[in-house]
Amino acid sequence: MQMTEKVRENILFDQGWRFKKGDMENGYYIDFHDSNWEILNLPHDWSIEGPFNKNNPSGRSGAFLPRGIGWYRKHFNISEEYRDKIVTIEFDGVYMNSDVWINGVHLGNRPYGYISFYYDLTPYLKIGNNVIAVRVDNSEEPNSRWYPGSGIYRHTWIVIT
User: Fold this and answer.
1) pTM of the full predicted structure?
2) Of 16, 70, 118, 152, which cross-links 90 as Cys (Cβ 3.0–4.6 Å)?
3) Could you tell me which residues come within 8 angstroms of residue 149 by beta carbon, excluding any fewer than 6 positions away?
4) pLDDT the model gives residue 3
5) What is the pLDDT of residues 39-97, one digit of tens each?
6) For 72, what's the count of Cα atoms within 13 Å in the CB-facing half-sphere?
7) pLDDT value at residue 7
8) Do residues 50 and 119 make contact, with C-beta atoms less than 8 angstroms apart?
9) What is the pLDDT of residues 82-130, one digit of tens each?
10) How far apart are CA 47 and CA 80, in angstroms?
11) What would the 3-class secondary structure string for the chain be?
């Protein structure tokens, strides 16, 4: 028997994210104004951008670097060809305490930073424009015995089945 249809498609989802350090009220809203945010590609660590300061609460084990809260957002399109497919987003690593939304709907919270995780986007996707928002809270100090960084520090994937 010959299979001609792909059963699983993994799409690297690292390009063209928007980032803003600090907490944003309603940063998960679809129409939240993010056009002035920094555009970057993942993986990303905002702590390493500094500044180094011996008074940072992260201390020596955190390399005296700042931590805090940051937001990531990504706008993307879904075409008709994915209408009857299951679409998930996979995060290979986010440090730490992340909340994820799709089109304003909260998908969940992952309190730990050293584990991959995924969410099913299928029920909330629209044909056309969609928005993923990720709030990362690495403000609790200390939270690691070594430098952990802050942010979406590994790859992200869209998986279609």
Assistant:
1) 0.91
2) 118
3) 45, 47, 48, 95
4) 58
5) 999 999 998 887 766 776 665 555 557 678 999 999 999 999 998 999 999 999 999 99
6) 28
7) 87
8) no
9) 989 999 999 999 999 999 999 999 999 999 888 999 999 999 999 999 9
10) 39
11) CCCCCCCCEEEECCCCEEEEECCCCCCCCCCCCCCCCEEECCCCCCHHHCCCCCCCCCCCCCCCCCCEEEEEEEEEEECHHHCCCCEEEEECCCECCEEEEECCEEEEEECCCCCCEEEECHHHCCCEEEEEEEEEEECCCCCCCCCCCCECCCCEEEEEC
Q: HEC string of 70-117?
A: EEEEEEEEECHHHCCCCEEEEECCCECCEEEEECCEEEEEECCCCCCE
Give the position of tokens 């730490």: 96
Locus of tokens 């690691």? 144
Pull the structure tokens for residue 26: 């309603």
